[in-house]
Write a structure and sequence with these properties.
Strand 18 and strand 19 form a beta hairpin. Helix 2 crosses helix 3. The protein is built from eleven helices and 19 strands. The N terminus is likely disordered. The chain is 26% helix and 28% strand.
Length: 415
């Protein structure tokens, strides 16, 4: 109750600070440094998105307009509101009959901001093997769940079948409602999202209630959805967790690679910007900023995840992003030496961790060195003899094109 009161006070401040309830205006003095920034590639715009967030309309602890304010502060281009349909821990004081209300509240808060696209979504929540799935770009979340009281006998059987259900919630009202909505076949929820043209992805597949070992395993249920083209993506990063196994499932099954915050509290409580942290995001390589362009990019798998300063994606998506983020030019040889100076510039928010795989050794660094975000670094290379052309090869140690496999960049320079 104390958390709810604190967030109500924060909500009140944000809602009325500019004199208009429900509408947010971004403070001009907000530190621009906290905004997530990656350069566009030669072919695509880089869209910064968080596709998995919660508010008090399910099990989050803030009003939806706080999510919008946080997204504006972090420089997001896309924010998805994805409340649990079945799990409603606040149902006694927030009945939430219309599952689109959280999205509507976020839209209202965002009405004066052109830079942020707020999209409608929902989280389909089931016991294993289905687990949790997000459906985004949906039109009506109400069609994805069913709380018909005629299903109460089935819900009671579910509670008997799973003794551990008693630990779902101490509150009987919440537990019984979760059971009632969970007995509606998950396939019907997925079909309803699919019929609306929704993009559906599998959430935190390594979640221990589903996999006690913390290992993502592709189930027959998910295989069937993939075969029917009803499962389009999978989270490889969620909150503070990452899964190599989920990354491999994405590669093997042509699923779009997703990374999300899954935020429930204030974003700054979970990802302290002042401590150098950032929320996990999905960088979408899109032809435009329209909803249709972004949606098409997701369906076509053009994404890179930024998680704890790691960049994760398929090679054909990650290399163009790295090549647009890093540039290199020759400054020539130091006078009277064959020590070549090159200037490397990092135009991205990621600290780049580079390992030298060239045939040449470095003068002031070991084979490993770092370049801070939005900065330049002079690197000295011992070429032994004066050259007119050179090829430099670096492995980006915090960029992954497959589990445990780093991206490599090659730069050909004219001296």
């Amino acid at each position: 109750m104390k958390k709810i009161l604190i967030n109500f006070l924060i909500l009140s401040f944000y809602s009325f600070a500019d004199g208009e309830a429900g509408s947010l205006s971004l403070d001009k003095d907000i530190n621009e440094d906290r905004k997530i920034s990656f350069p566009n590639t030669k072919e695509y715009l880089v869209i910064v998105s968080d596709l998995h967030t919660h508010s008090v309309f399910s099990d989050g602890h803030v009003w939806p307009n706080i999510r919008v304010e946080e997204a504006l502060r972090d420089g997001l281009d896309v924010l998805a509101i994805t409340e649990h349909l079945e799990y409603q821990p606040h149902i006694e004081f927030l009945p939430n009959k219309n599952r689109n209300d959280a999205y509507k509240e976020a839209l209202l808060a965002n009405k004066n901001n052109d830079d942020l696209l707020v999209i409608n979504g929902a989280e389909i929540t089931r016991i294993p093997p289905a687990g949790h799935m997000n459906a985004i770009f949906i039109k009506d979340a109400n069609l994805l769940f069913n709380d018909d009281e005629s299903n109460i006998p089935l819900a009671q059987e579910l509670l008997k079948q799973y003794p551990e259900a008693a630990s779902w919630e101490e509150n009987k009202t919440i537990r019984d409602y979760y059971a009632l909505t969970s007995v509606w076949p998950v396939e019907k929820a997925v079909d309803a999202a699919h019929a609306q043209g929704g993009f559906i992805f599998w959430n935190h597949s390594w979640w221990t209630p589903q996999s006690p070992q913390g290992i993502s395993v592709l189930t027959d249920f998910h295989k069937k959805l993939i075969q029917e083209n009803k499962l389009h993506g999978i989270e490889v990063a969620n909150g503070i967790n990452y899964s190599d196994e989920a990354f491999q499932i994405a590669i093997d099954n042509d699923l779009t690679i997703i990374g999300t915050s899954d935020v429930h509290n204030l974003i700054d409580w979970d990802y302290s910007f002042y401590k150098g942290k950032h929320r996990p995001v999905t960088l979408i390589l899109s032809k435009g900023k329209s909803e249709n362009s972004i949606k098409q990019a997701l369906f076509e798998g053009r994404t890179v995840v930024w998680f704890k300063n790691n960049l994760i994606g398929l090679e054909n998506n990650l290399l163009p992003l790295l090549n647009s983020s890093l540039s290199i030019k020759s400054l020539g040889y130091q006078a009277g030496t064959t020590i070549l100076e090159v200037l490397i510039e990092n135009k991205s928010d990621a600290k780049m961790m580079l390992r030298n795989f060239s045939e040449y050794t470095l003068s002031q660094n070991t084979n490993f060195f770092e370049i801070d975000p939005h900065s330049k670094k002079i690197v000295e290379i011992k070429t032994i003899e004066a050259l007119k052309n050179i090829e430099l090869i670096f492995s980006v140690e915090n960029a992954f094109i497959a589990p445990k496999k780093n991206a490599q960049l090659s730069f050909k320079l004219r001296i």
